[in-house]
Amino acid sequence: MKRISFDQLVTSSLVVDAVYEGGSNGNAGDDPISKLLKGTGNQGGFRVAGSFGSWKWIVLYTSGEDSDWPDTLDTLTGEFVYYGDNKTAGHELHKTNQGGNKVLRELFTNAHSSNRPLEVPPIFIFKKHPTAFSKRSVQFLGLAVPGTNDKTATEDLTAVWKSTKGERFQNYRAIFTVLNAPEINREWIDSLRDGQDITVHAPNAWTEWKFKGLYNALTATPSKAIRTLEQQSPKTNNEIAILETIWDYCKPEYKDDKRGFRSFEFFAAWLFSLSDERVVIDEVTRGSVDHGRDAIGHYKLGINDDPVIVDFALEAKCYNPGLGESTANTIGVKEVARLISRIKHRQFGVLVTTSQISKQVYEEVRDDKHPIIFIAGGDIAKLLISKGYKNCEELLEILKYEFPKH
Q1: Buried b (16+ CB within 10 A) or exposed e, 281-308
Q2: How far is CA 248 from CA 241, 344, 347, 395, 400, in A?
Q3: Which of 292, 323, 327, 358 has the smallest count of CB within 10 Å of its CB?
């Protein structure tokens, strides 16, 4: 991974996924973004250069650590989901200290205008990326524009409701497209500072979008996705607590106690349907006649009036996730081979586990191109939190009510 030192920032270009080192003085002056893009503020998620509506550029900064408002980049599609700055109750949607939600509203309004060129400034996305040298180092995720190819004006900027301690409030959920501009050269940045965004130094993808509204997204398809045990595990304290709640509820209470395992089968089926609205669970099979499938269902492709249906089989494995001092019981060859053997032609498999998938199994499945979806313990926690199930006490009540032990 390319790294740019703090003393080189003022002359450096912006390279996608490069890390830009912060300072080491322990104050706001360590911020690298304000050095890379002179005129940009050094704090907050929304950082603008210029006055409202006449911006030279806008920086969206994300820590990537807010489980209540999870900003995410999908490298397969180039879509970046970013949440506004009304993150606590007691404020109207647009009345925030930074004014970030007003910025979002203006950006998306202008992006859907019929005027050409579109009156939207370049948007640079950075993510927190602490290094040994500086905790304020950042990673550049790309040049972005509001909206996407496949979402309308009513879909790419939406106000979502959340509640805190019984108080309801709204925040924006905005979807941007990261453009196919692997490097932003210093000459264009200098032009932007002078108020010129259309020059010979401007990225082609930017010019096409400004004049034609064309989204040329920066997409990246992994050659082979092999996740490590660490990548499959929960990271934050909230994620660990969520997974621990599920494991504590479902694990055996005495020898040969399988009640919790059965509850986890229903939970796993529900969880997979929660991950995608096109998933339909047809049946959670009876333990004595499941033929190696804990649940079966189908996935809808295409339009609702004429869909293509693809069947799947789901296996649920409630194994020790290895939290605290305990040792994880990872998924091995035997469990996955059983699922693979049950998949028929034009079907796919899903394996949901509170633990992780061993490296050997992961590599064999991907090398042999078996159509298996892995949802590990960390994935379970992240998905639940992203859907609003972040409170352990409330989650436990849901488990007891929706997935009782029998």
Answers
A1: beebbeeeebeebbbbbbbeeeeeeeee
A2: 10, 35, 33, 12, 12
A3: 327
Report field, pTM of the whole predicted structure over 0.70? yes
- The CATH number linked to 346 is 3.40.1350.10
**pLDDT tens-digit map of 144-171:** 999 999 888 889 999 988 877 778 889 9
As a whole number of angstroms, the distance between CA 125 and CA 59 comes to: 6
Alpha-carbon separation of residue 265 from 6, 76, 220, 287 (angstroms): 51, 30, 34, 10
Please indicate, yes or no, whether residues 178 and 305 belong to a single structural domain of this protein: no
Number of domains in the chain: 2
pLDDT digits (tens, 9 = 90+) for 166-222: 788 899 999 999 999 999 999 999 999 999 999 999 999 999 999 999 999 999 876
User: Which tokens sit at 9?
Assistant: 């920032």
Query: Which amino acid is residue 329, in one-letter code?
Result: N
314 is in which domain, residue-wise? 237-402
